[in-house]
Each structure stands twice: as C-alpha cells, then as structure tokens.
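Escalation from tier 1.

The customer reports that the assembly of two entities below gives different structure tokens on two consecutive runs. Tier 1 could not reproduce it. I'm attaching the input and our single run for tier 2 to review.
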Amino acid sequence: MESVFDIIGPIMIGPSSSHTAGALKLASMARAILGDTPTEVKVNLYGSFAKTYKGHGSDRAIAAGFLGFSTEDERIPDAINIAANMGVKVNFVPSNISVDHPNTLEFEMTDKSGLKVTVQGISIGGGNVIIKKIDKYEVNLTGNYETLIICHKDYPGIIARITQIISNKNINIAYMYVSRLERGKDAMMTIETDDYIGIDVYNILSNLSDLNFVKIIHKAQAGG
Amino acid sequence: MVNVSSFSKISELISMAGENKSNISEIVLSCEAQKMQKSKEEIFNSMSQRLTVMRNSVEKGRKNYNYSVSKMVGTNAVKFDSFIRKNTYLGGMVEKAICYALSVSEVNACMGLVVACPTAGSCGILPGAILSVSEEMKLSDEKIVMSMFTAAGVGMVIGNNATLAGAVGGCQAECGSASAMAAAAVLELMGGSPDQIGHAIALALKNCLGLVCDPVAGLVEVPCVKRNAFGAVHALVAAELALAGIESVIPPDEVILASYEIGRLMPKSLKETSEAGLARTPTGKKIESMMNN
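Tier 1 run:
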C-alpha cells in the first residue's frame, strides 16, 4: 500500500475488486503485452475464478480488458457483446487443475497477424494484480509502473548494455527481473521504472543486436 | 506547516498530528503529496472525485431496483429508503448510514460504478457512515474529503501491517478494516481528537475480530450487502463511544496485529473459498448449484 488511492480506490465497476477489476487489469496488461487487440483469446480460469467467474462478471470484465476499457467503464456489463460485434472471439474455459494462487487467469491470445502470446497472472486483492508468466518465461509485473519487456540472448554484459541506455535517458529503475530457460539461450528481462519510457528508448533498443522482442507497457495501459 | 514523509503505525499518525497540531487527515494528505511528488491540491481533487462517485452510487442504489446476476440482492436499498421516508425508529443518522451503505453495496453487486474502500466487497461502509454524518451535521464537502484521507491512512496502516484481503484474513480484513476506517473518518468529522480517533479504530476493529468470509456461491452478495449496512452503523457506534471518552484497553496497532494473527489462524474454508459456513448451508448450496447451471 503505497498510496491513499490504493485504499480509497480504484473507482470501478463491481462487484469484486479481485474478480472484476483485477480480472480486467490482467486482460488489459495481456493486451498491452500482445501489442494489439487480439482477434481470438482462450481464457483459462483457475481456482476461485473457475468457480465464480459468472457471478462476479469476470468474463465481462476480461472481455472489457481486451477491448481496452478502464475499470470504471460503464460498458463493462455489456463487454462480451461489444467484443463479439468487433470480431474479438473470447472463449472461457474453467479448469480444475490446481494452481499456486487461488485467483489465477491465463490468456492464450492470437492477433490479426497470427502472432500468439500466452500470458498468465494472478489477482491479489483490492484490484491489484501481478503478471507471472509471458509464454515460457517467469516474470513479476504489477502494471503500477512504466514497464519494459525485452527478450534477449543470454550472455555477459547484455544487461548492462540495456540498463545503460535507460540510465542515459535519466529513467529510474524501480524493479527489475531477469529469467531464462537455459544458459546461453533466450532470456527475458522485465524492468519497471518510475519515469515515463518514451518511444526514443524503444527505437534505440529495437536497433540493438541480440534483442528479439521489445515492448513498452505504459502505466495507463494497465486498465487502472 | 505540516512536513512529514511517512507513517507505518496508527501511533505515529497520532503523534505526528499532535506535534504538528493538525488533524490526522492533514498528515495523510501531506505524506501522499510528498511521496507522489504532486501538489496537495491535486491529491485533494483526486479524492474529491471519489466522493462524487460515492454520492452517485448512493443515489443510484436507493432510487432504482436492480438485480445482481444471481438475483439474490438489488432491491434492499430501495425498500429501506422508502421505509425511512415514512417511519423513523433509529433516528436520521443511523437510518441514513444503513440506507446509503446498502445503496452503494447493491450498486456494486449489480455491476455498477463504485469506489473500492478498501475493497469492493466493503465499499458501502465508508460512504454510508461519512455521508450520513456529514448530512445530519451539515458539513462542507471539504471536510468530508479530508475525512477520507484519515480513513485512507488507517487503511494503509492495516494493509501494511496486516491484510485487506478476505482470502487472507477473512471478512475482518475487509468489512472490519472498512469499519475502522469509517470510525476514524466519522470521529474526525465530529471533531474528535487524534487520540480519540485511535480508540475508535481499536474499538471498531476489535468488535469485528474473527469475522469470517463465507459468501454464498462465492459472490459479493450474501452476507456482504447487509453486512455493509451493519458495518456503517458499527463505525458510528465506535466513533461516539470514543468521543464520549471511552478508551480501548488494547491500543489500535496491537489490535491490528491481533487481527492479522487471527486471520492467519482462520481455516482456509472460511476465507473467501465458500467451502464452509453460510455458503454450505442447504440454501447456500441450492443457490450455488442454480448459479452453476
């Protein structure tokens, strides 16, 4: 709890900060990670989401998140129809597979170019969420900061090269997380910063060698 | 001039208010402005916006019949509102607190717009309490908005030393925290001292210790909606007790830690999983199976 508005807030469509607002925020962040409104999403619902998603309107909130609505958008109750009319197919699949956190969601997204990204996250209460996995990589993203997601080759010095670019732009890093599947292969770095990450940073990073995926998620895209 | 940067305990809020000869609300507002590097005016306006949303949900809830997805709730606020227009037993302040808390909580259950405070499940308690008190006492909006900072400060201390999630601490973490927050806000509106506010927080939270979260069909409806009405009145009782000089033997920070301990000891089946209690009554099970088909 860093801010008074974590307590008196969010302003949101009910009924549940974790199962409605939180579900929407997870979908918004997944959409930002994909980089576009998906054309098709398979939503795997785990734990208490699997049992209570209809009554909590989690399904409508998730559809709303994929459309880029905020948690306070009064169109949320109708979001499934709106998504269908816009050609966004959202398929909800409750699962009884046991998971670490009782409020877990997974989105298997496809965009219009055919790009597929799978994002998994948890809703931890009060509308706060954490993205835990992007494809095979473990991450830890809250959406409360400006966020940079980079896929890169795993070798000495690459992290320093990237953070140097960020530091040159006078951007302060709040949290940083690096994960890889195997030494010397692909790795994923996520960086959460206090300051706005502009397109200039994106342009420099996209031109670096050995980086094959660079994505910026602005704080405002997290649906809060 | 208040110049403070952070607080982690209720006792710190009280002593900082004492040192600065100010209200707790001013301490919380100053801390927020410093931490977020924004002007106090900007922070005040964001809070003021939340007051507007609260008022709108009160008006919406008591004027319109609405049904939740399960149809379990949605008509109680209208019923109570029309009842108290013709009858009065408990008196205006209490009746309005009940009515407004029901309104906001039902708007929430019916997918309407609310302010989570601290959660959506407990969102009726703070507006129910502060809007009834401020109307009956004819207080300015500025005072109401400031009292919300006091409530927020209390919520931050609870969140940082215990929990605000029903899944972790049971309903004492949600409606208990909301009642403690509302008691503090109400007492500031009534002109209570920071010390008295500390007692009101302790009194309100103590009386919610052990409260379980066993919602029928896992929804924020039964018992949540009506519990919000009780929670708002609960806050008024705690505030007036403290204003009369009645003290909590156990100080607020110790009560908060006790609530966390109790929450951890509470079985998982009674923490938002709907595996026991009201959710597993014959009627509760029947409603759950209707929802799943």
